Amino acid sequence: DGGITQSPKYLFRKEGQNVTLSCEQNLNHDAMYWYRQDPGQGLRLIYYSQIVNDFQKGDIAEGYSVSREKKESFPLTVTSAQKNPTAFYLCASSIKGRSSPLHFGNGTRLTVT
Amino acid sequence: SQQGEEDPQALSIQEGENATMNCSYKTSINNLQWYRQNSGRGLVHLILIRSNEREKHSGRLRVTLDTSKKSSSLLITASRAADTASYFCATDMTTDSWGKLQFGAGTQVVVTP
Question: A100: closest CA among B48, B5, B56?
Answer without folding.
Answer: B48
